[in-house]
Amino acid sequence: MKTFVICVIIIISFLPQWIHAQSVGIGTLTPNANAALDVVATNKGLLIPRVALTSTTSNAPVGAFVAGMMVYNTATAGDVTPGFYFCNGSKWEKAVGGWSLTGNGGTNPATNFIGTTDNQDILFKRNNLIAGLLNNSSGNTAFGVESFNLTTTSTGNTAIGKVVLSSIQSGSNNTVIGAQSLNNTTTGFQNSTLGHSAMLLNTTGSENIAIGVSSLGQNSAGSNAIAIGSWAMFLANNTTTPFANTNIAIGSWALAGSPTAANNSGLGNNGIGFFALRNNSSGSRNNTLGTETLLNNTTGSVI
């Protein structure tokens, strides 16, 4: 009997070191050597502590934030809802499965959405380049690969299309729809464009309306122009000195201008119709209505 007691004492004395050095198994005699705890079961689950959190920024009811700790929250309070939460060391984060890359089933538009539950902006990227922005504080909205410039101080811009408003610095309240439209604009403001490459080379020009492919395409610093139609006022004066462009062109190629954009200095013209005032350069205050009216006028003006 004495020998048996001595053996038991010896085993007990070494037991803490054995447990410390080995993996612990529950439901198995051969726990995984790489795991501190290996739980094996075929008809039971793992039930972790259930607590009632109050918010993601409060450790309560747990004594302190401990990185790696996980709990199941049972409460709906503050910004927490029932579900698994883990601690990142300074707050609780909800453990979610995320959206599948191959599509998601069983969604309910009444409760499921892509977005935020706090007052934070949303940024989309493709190949690590901006592809969308929803900004509340500045009022800027963008959608399209390389649409908009994230370092801008501008406000109230809407940019839709590939490579649009990507150079904007301080210009505000521009509305842009169409690939490459207003892409070089830096400080221009209150421009409205619709069409591929509309006002493509504009930099500081403001308060223009350009609707149609490449309309006002060469304009740089001119303001107040109205060009509606594909290539309308395409070769507008491209000076970098700001000026008021008081021309109105409605119709494809209307007031498109002479091949040398710098020579297109005519102002106060109203050209309405296909190819109306097509080749006008320095002619001013002309009014036309109809297809190819004053087609070959270049310098003629109404005094």
What do you see in this structure?
The protein is mainly beta. The protein has two domains: 48-95; 120-303. The chain contains one helix and 19 strands. The protein has one helix at 2-21; strands spanning 24-26, 37-39, 50-51, 70-73, 83-87, 92-94, 122-126, 129-134, 141-143, 158-160, 175-177, 192-194, 209-211, 222-223, 226-228, 243-244, 248-250, 270-272, 287-289. The strands form four sheets. It has an eleven-stranded mixed sheet with strand order 7-8-9-10-11-12-13-15-17-18-19, with no helix packed on it. It has a four-stranded mixed sheet with strand order 3-4-5-6, with no helix packed on it. Strands 1-2 form a two-stranded parallel ribbon. Strand 5 and strand 6 (92-94) form a beta hairpin. The longest helix is centred in the N-terminal third of the chain and has 20 residues, at 2-21. The chain is rod-shaped and about 100 Å long.
